[in-house]
Amino acid sequence: MPPGFESSRYGHGLDLGRAEATVLFDVLQDCAACRSRHAFLALLPKLGALLSFDHALALAGRLDRGVATTTDCVVAGFPEGWLRDYAASELPGRDALVARGFAGRGPCQWSDAGAGLEEPNALALCRDHGLRCGHVAGHGPLLGSSCSLFCFTGTRGREDRRTAALLRFLTPHLHLAFQLALAVSEPPPGGDAGLTRREREVLGWLKEGKSSWAIGMLLGISERTANFHVANIMRKLGVANRAQAVAAAIARGVIDAG
Amino acid sequence: MPPGFESSRYGHGLDLGRAEATVLFDVLQDCAACRSRHAFLALLPKLGALLSFDHALALAGRLDRGVATTTDCVVAGFPEGWLRDYAASELPGRDALVARGFAGRGPCQWSDAGAGLEEPNALALCRDHGLRCGHVAGHGPLLGSSCSLFCFTGTRGREDRRTAALLRFLTPHLHLAFQLALAVSEPPPGGDAGLTRREREVLGWLKEGKSSWAIGMLLGISERTANFHVANIMRKLGVANRAQAVAAAIARGVIDAG
DNA sequence: TGCGCACCTGTCGGAACTGACAGGCCCGGG
DNA sequence: CCCGGGCCTGTCAGTTCCGACAGGTGCGCA
Fold first, then answer.
1. Would you give the DSSP letter of residue B2?
2. CA of B211 vs C1' of D25, distance in Å?
3. Nearest CB to A253; choose among B10, B141, B240
4. Is the CB of B217 inside 8 Å of chain A's CB atoms?
5. End-to-end alpha-carbon separation of chain A, Å?
6. Shortest distance, CA A30 to any CA of chain B (angstroms)
7. Which of A49, B57, B101, B226 could form a disulfide with B216 if both were Cys (CB 3.0 to 4.6 A apart)?
8. Contact by Cβ (8 Å): B232, B200
9. Residue of A19, A209, A242 lying closest to B5 (CB–CB)
């Protein structure tokens, strides 16, 4: 009998009631179906039944040698004042909470964040704005190179091990949902750009660093024809050279990075 | 009160018992934490408690103008004979079940697959090998361009609407788990290849199709120095030219396709 | 039968890339 | 203090790319 069965409640270590289990299933379904910023935004309030918070914030970005760079964000109900003060502060780019989140070091809550959290961080600013409780959880890069950070805060809220366990469970799903939302919300302009099979084939060899002559050999056509295909590829993708063509083709999913 | 609460069982439309709900949570946690083919393989048997099957198969590939190409697969317990016969048949590359799955057209089971499913497909072959029940579910490209297909079959098994609903719920999570497993199981050789900040900066402009002269302008250095950085990038990545450098950098996650 | 399209081939010249030479400045660690 | 590394600059020769010219074949469709 699996360990979870010993408890009268559900989820390994999550200690969920029946209503919460149903909400969680709902949220997980939404996570996998998240295809826009709006869908992601709509997903956040549902978490309120599980985590109990007033405001939520999701950041996407990168962590490079300990320095966190934010590239995108979705805000759900954070106070205007807080946002303004945060932007005006020295925090953006140096917030230790963000760096910790992007590193995927596990959830962290206001009550335990004080100890062991480097300065500067947004904790004091949150308390100044009356956001007395909160959780931050993040995730490192997964399918792609982008990290995520999720912050749930407000005047009330539970800060216990159960909530931490729930966040630990949810964060990877939220990360994937967020990445999906951001990836799909900016759809590649023009899909596959109407590239022909031959042109995709040529792109595949361009990606491998082959010269026109080599591509001609590989495809059994003349070097000139390989050049002809490359020119058409560049024209259709609207790019200036082969390097950009490869990047654009990968970005649009015409070929994969492999 | 959300609709799910009206039922004495859990999950919107999934109609799960307590034990099944716990298994499902467990599986979902594993999905988000899946980092290797082995982890994905270990995840499949757990589904047995929910779907009841003997053999499982996961395919990754692409769908191009209705033609499915399989690039990778993970097999859990399929009979040797079946695999041999399938490989020897005309099916690989033309199996309508695979094409349907890669198109993400929703789960499909043996009992209803006969009607409306194009030929050729693997159904007859499965029945020949005594695999009398089964489900196929697939998913289109999500974070990346790769599609997934999951096949659960055996001599026994439920083929009802509840199982279909469960598969519909699970498939996106399985797809992401599978993509994660494949993406991470072949780690980029050498990580960031020891590229310096400047070199990553140059790569970012290469990706945009800038010439050496333009990169020099943009970075406030001479054209020659830009060339110097490009040469070092190509040497470190072990590639032949800029186009391949861009592809390799994206594949390794040094820069993103953006 | 004509039309569009994918695919193929050729030449030419200027621009860009690639690799190898040789050197300079600045900074941190042994 | 020297050494290594990141970063910067230069020259030179050979290769490759890129755009624009002008064509040919085969296939499906109206």
1. -
2. 37
3. B141
4. no
5. 42
6. 10
7. B226
8. no
9. A19
Of B11, B206, B208, the CB nearest to A22: B11
Residues 215-234 of A with CB under 7 A from strand D: 227-228, 230-231, 234
Task: Enumerate residues 70 to 129 of chain B having a beta carbon within 8 A of any beta carbon in chain A.
Answer: none
Both tokens assigned to B236: 């470190």
Cβ atoms A22, B4 nearer than 8 A:
yes
Residues of A in contact with B61 (CB under 8 A): none
| Beta-carbon separation of A180 and B23 below 8 A | no
Quote the CA–CA distance of A7 and A165 in Å, as a whole number.
Answer: 16
Sheet of strand A55-64, all strands in order from the earlier edge strand to the far edge: A67-76, A55-64, A147-154, A133-139, A108-109
Write the pLDDT tens digit of every residue in A128-180: 888 888 899 999 888 766 889 999 998 877 778 888 889 999 999 999 999 88
Q: Which of residues 96-125 of B touch strand D (CB under 7 A)?
A: none
Give me the sheet containing B147-154, strands edge to edge. B67-76, B55-64, B147-154, B133-139, B108-109
Q: What is the pLDDT of residues B211-253, one digit of tens each?
A: 888 888 888 888 888 888 888 888 888 888 899 899 988 888 7
Residues 124-153 of A with CB under 8 A from B: 141-146
Q: State the maximum Cα–Cα separation within chain A, in Å, rounded to a whole number.
A: 72
* Domains of chain A with bracketed CATH: 18-185 (3.30.450.80), 197-252 (1.10.10.10)
Report residue A98 as tokens.
């963000």
CB-based contacts of A196, cutoff 8 Å, min separation 6: none
Average pLDDT of the residues of chain A: 82
Instruction: Kindly report, residue by residue over B187-217, the tens digit of the pLDDT.
Output: 444 566 678 888 888 888 888 888 888 888 8
Q: Report how far residue B113's alpha carbon sits from residue B120's, in angstroms, rounded to the nearest whole number.
A: 12
Longest dimension (CA), chain B: 72
